[in-house]
Design brief:
With 149 residues, this protein is mainly α. It has a single domain, classed as Four Helix Bundle (Hemerythrin (Met), subunit A) (Up-down Bundle), CATH 1.20.120. It has six helices and no strands. The chain has helices spanning 2-16, 23-36, 38-43, 59-62, 64-86, 126-144. The longest helix has 23 residues, at 64-86. The structure holds heme C. The site of heme C has 21 residues, from helix 1, helix 5 and helix 6.
Amino acid sequence: MKAMASAAKTISGIFDGKLAYDAAAFKAAAETIRRRSGSAMVDAFPADTLGEPSAAKTEIEQSREEFAALARHLESLATALSDAANDAPDGITEAMRMKPGMAMGGGLLGKRVGGAAEADPSKMPAEHVFHLILQDCTNCHGKFREKRR
Ligand code: HEC
């Protein structure tokens, strides 16, 4: 999770222009998230590790399907982000940028994210995909991570 957090920070810095664009670093960060999501993420939380002292809630065991779906969703988004780096060797392209109104999952796509008719992430601007990734982090933590002071 720490590696994913630092990867997300790198990608966010690149989109914000706080970090110089580097296709290899961008791709490596997306790959870090991809490799740690999906079934790898499910495998990282076996039943006997849930609950104290871990911040992983025991609810994960009761909601295996939902947890796995979140992990898989994150994986498919990270895959799209990683692929986007291949098409942008020299810098963030216009096509990678989010258009106004997309931040809430509406805009050009016209559909709420997470809905049954969710659009194909490989066809979305990479910046939008990244926002959806952050939503997955938040959604899963909100449900399955214990708040620590
Ligand atoms: C499918 C569920 C799920 C998703 C998706 C998810 N996390 Fe987590 N995350 C957890 C759980 C459960 C914990 C608490 C257990 C632990 O710390 O390993 C956690 C803990 C963390 C922590 C604190 C623990 C540490 O090692 O410092 C960070 C930071 C973190 N996640 C970052 C992220 C980021 C960034 C993303 C998105 C790119 C993300 N997580 C996506 C479930 C998820």
